[in-house]
Amino acid sequence: MTELDGYRLIGDIETYLDDAAALHEAIFDRPWSQDALRDLLAMSGADGAVILAGTRDPAFAGFVIFQCIGDFAEILTLAVAPDHRGRGLARSLVQQVFARARETGAEKVMLEVQDGNLAAIQLYESLGMTAFDRRRNYYKAADGSHADAIMMQLFFDN
Known about the structure:
The chain is α+β, with helices and mostly antiparallel strands. It contains four helices and eight strands, in the order ββααβββαβαββ. An eight-stranded mixed β-sheet has the order 1-2-3-4-5-6-8-7, with helices on both faces. A hairpin with a 5-residue loop joins strand 3 (about 45-55) and strand 4 (about 60-70). The radius of gyration is 15 Å and the shape is globular.
């Protein structure tokens, strides 16, 4: 568990899957259900972390699910509740993934981010990640429109 100025980062995501699914539904056009998140966590090398706000009756503030396989790790999904944004929580979640990836011997971390999600892209770039490819029309919005996925990666210095 890590303390973050009124927040706690913990690794027990299984306990909070219903909160994670509710947050995913609230902020993504095509959200993943609790069962889908559980299926992600059942994959080999998958893990996650959550951030809770406060100590008494803590509020669910965000989560990350990632997978470490062989020499790389991939961030599968990351979400921070809108009323908890701008406090460095997403940065803390990504740094948690970096730490866990290094522990497992990964040489790099990869992710996909929706083109146009400038806050996320800027965060990932500030952490040293760089774009290396693009998946055209990867994300489909509820209105039927599409957006590209920008593939980003960070190689660890060993």
